[in-house]
Amino acid sequence: MLSLAGCGTVNSTTGSTGTPASPGTNTATGNSSSGSGSSSQPITVRYSEVIRSVFYAPAYVAMSEGFFKQHGLNVQMVTSEGSNTGAAALLSGSADIALVGPETSVYIYNQHGSQTLKVFDQLTNTDGSFILSKNKMNNFTWKDLQGQSIISWRPGSSPQMVLNYDLKKKGVQANVITNIGPSAMVGAFESGKANFIQVYEPVASQLIQSGKAYYDASVGQAIGTYPETAFEATSSYIKSHPQVIQDWTDAIYQATQYIDTHSANQVATAIAPYFTGTPTSLIASSIQRYQKLHAWDGQILTKSAFNTLQQVLIQNGTEKANQKVNYSDVIDPSFAQNVKK
């Protein structure tokens, strides 16, 4: 429960521990013609996910069910434990594609550096975190958080900013704790650091099932449509490897279709290798919770959702009103649009 992700662990598309590309293995870096049907060898893509969560089920399905493999991609995955770390991996060239919060693209664009990051495929279209309490709350409302302490995520992270946005919208003032690392959040909650905690699945279901916490509210349901996480790459990588980006986007679309056409138990079985030690039944309940939120209902990050994102950033003080960036500066929807075609 305390280990949200195996930081630095490399996984292959089958979910077992993988190894770096061996000599002669075709890698996406430096090969712009790679992709489905254009090379006899698989293309290795170094992939960084922000944390390990059932919220990102389509990515695990794409690996476990072989959808990436069908498109000629060999995915080597690491868990970065934060959008800032994932973005840094892209900029340093140690990762090709990262699953991060789209706000990172805005931050980096506003720094006017030599590299920019672009969203090419949205994975989740709302926030995937939940508010839990140590004590059972009858008929919980957001007003119950007034004056309370809530263990949240690092300052400037998407879940922390969305929580702040929701609290302000509800007219609630709370003590949002942001200085605890992801792997220590549950321990701090259990030791009495706060009466409330903001967590993702499967941690939410683990805490509820163990009787150590009670479900109160969905942060995503409170904000509605919101681009929580998306696949990004540097602008130069996208320009040099458009087929790899399209193949990735196509594989994720196949994965979302798989989730739509299979039971929660079947999906849970497919992604179980990525959640060692977590009962399949608990993973299935996590899947159902996200399906009710329609978490995976759109790969195109729309202009409307991007406007909401920037409103959240401005309210939280991580972007100035006069620094708002244009949609096309940090979003390239063409690959997701090609899937729809």
UniProtKB/TrEMBL annotation:
PANTHER family, per database record: ALIPHATIC SULFONATES-BINDING PROTEIN-RELATED, TAURINE-BINDING PERIPLASMIC PROTEIN
Pfam families: NMT1
GO cellular component: periplasmic space
Protein name (Swiss-Prot/TrEMBL): ABC transporter substrate-binding protein
Biased composition (Low complexity): 1-40
Chain intervals for the UniProt region annotation (Disordered): 1-41
InterPro entries per the UniProt record, alphabetical: SsuA/THI5
Domain spans labelled SsuA/THI5-like: 57-260
Main localization, broad class: periplasm
Keyword Signal applies: yes
Signal peptide: none
Family: Belongs to the bacterial solute-binding protein SsuA/TauA family.
Sorted UniProt keywords: Signal
Subcellular location: Periplasm
Lineage of origin: Bacteria, Bacillati, Bacillota, Bacilli, Bacillales
Recorded superkingdom: Bacteria
